[in-house]
Write a structure and sequence with these properties.
- The structure is a single chain.
- 28% of the residues lie in helices and 25% in strands.
- Strand 4, helix 5 and strand 5 (127-131) form a beta-alpha-beta unit.
- It has helices at 5-17, 23-31, 63-73, 90-98, 109-121, 158-162; strands spanning 52-53, 59-60, 80-84, 101-106, 127-131, 144-149, 164-174, 181-188, 193-201.
- The chain has one domain (51-201): Rossmann fold (3-Layer(aba) Sandwich).
- Helix 2 packs across helix 4 (90-98).
- It is built from six helices and nine strands; from the N terminus they run ααββαβαβαββαβββ.
- With 214 residues, it is of the alpha/beta class.
- The structure holds S-adenosyl-L-homocysteine.
- S-adenosyl-L-homocysteine (SAH) is lined by residues 58-61, 84-85, 87-88, 90-91, 105-108, 111, 133-135, 150-151, 204, 206-207.
Length: 214
C-alpha cells in the first residue's frame, strides 16, 4: 500500500494540527510511507492519525505521537540515537532521516525480522536492529545523544539514563501500563537530570526479559 498525494497532504495537515511544527520532522514523515509499516487489513488506515495493531500483540504508534516525540527529541544530524521498542520500525525509519545512526531494539524476534526487511527495502542503511530487553540499553554503543522509548515504563530505566550523553535528551512514556501515562522529556545536565512533562499518552508496557518466540 502506498499513499496518494491527497492522503499525504491530509496526513501532514493532521500532524501540524496536533502540534508537529518542526519542518525537518514533517519532511521526514512526509517522505517515509507509513503504509509500508502496517500489514493486511489495517494498511488502508495507515494515513489516519490512529495507532494500529501489528504482530506479537503490539501497536504502531499514532503518527502525531511519533511526530511529537521526535520533535521533543530535537535530533541533530550527527546524533547517535537509541530507540527502545522497534515494533513496526516506523519510528526508527523517521529517526534515520534526522540522525547519523540509529540503534533500535525489541524483545520480539518476529518484529525485528520484519523491520529489518523494511529498512533494507527502503535503503535505510544507518539503522542497526538489535534483539533483547531494551531496558538495559546498549552499553557497547553508549553514550547516546538521544534515546526514545516507545513503550511505557513505571520509571525511566536507570541503565538508559546512564547511557545518555551529558546534554542528551531522552523521551519516554512513564506510568502504570494499564493507565494513562505521561510523556516525559529528560535532559541530562552536568550535574544530573532535568524532567519535563510533555503530555498524557497511552503506550503498550515496557516488559522485562524476552519471550520465547522465534
Ligand atoms: N516504535 C514502534 C512502536 C512500538 S510498540 C513503531 O514505530 O512501530 C512497543 C514495542 O516495544 C513493542 O514492539 C514491544 O515488543 C517493545 N518492547 C516492550 N518492552 C520491551 C523491552 N523491554 N525491550 C525492548 N522492546 C520492548
Amino acid at each position: 500500500m502506498t499513499a496518494s498525494a491527497e492522503q499525504i497532504m491530509q496526513f501532514v495537515f493532521a500532524l501540524r494540527s496536533k502540534g508537529v511544527r518542526d519542518t525537518r520532522v514533517l519532511a521526514a514523515m512526509e517522505k517515509v510511507d507509513r503504509g509500508l509499516f502496517v500489514d493486511g487489513v489495517f494498511a488502508a488506515r495507515a494515513y489516519e492519525d490512529v495507532p494500529l495493531p501489528i504482530a506479537c500483540g503490539q501497536t504502531i504508534s499514532q503518527p502525531s505521537i511519533v511526530g511529537l516525540m521526535t520533535q521533543a527529541a530535537q535530533i541533530q544530524p550527527r546524533d547517535h540515537v537509541l530507540e527502545v521498542g522497534t515494533g513496526s520500525g516506523y519510528q526508527a525509519a523517521i529517526l534515520s532521516q534526522l540522525a547519523r545512526r540509529v540503534w533500535t531494539i525489541d524483545r520480539h524476534k518476529p518484529l525485528i525480522r520484519v523491520a529489518e526487511e523494511r529498512f533494507a527495502a527502503l535503503g535505510l542503511n544507518n539503522i542497526t536492529v538489535m534483539y533483547g530487553d531494551g531496558s538495559f540499553g546498549l552499553p557497547d554503543q553508549a553514550p547516546f545523544d538521544r534515546i526514545l522509548v516507545t513503550a511505557a515504563a513505571e520509571d525511566p530505566p536507570g541503565p538508559l539514563l546512564a547511557q545518555l550523553r551529558i546534554g542528551g535528551i531522552m523521551v519516554v512514556p512513564v506510568g502504570q501500563s494499564d493507565a494513562v501515562q505521561s510523556l516525559i522529556k529528560v535532559t541530562r545536565t552536568d550535574t544530573g537530570y532535568d524532567y519535563e512533562e510533555l503530555r498524557s499518552v497511552r503506550f503498550v508496557p515496557l516488559v522485562e526479559g524476552v519471550p520465547a518466540d522465534r
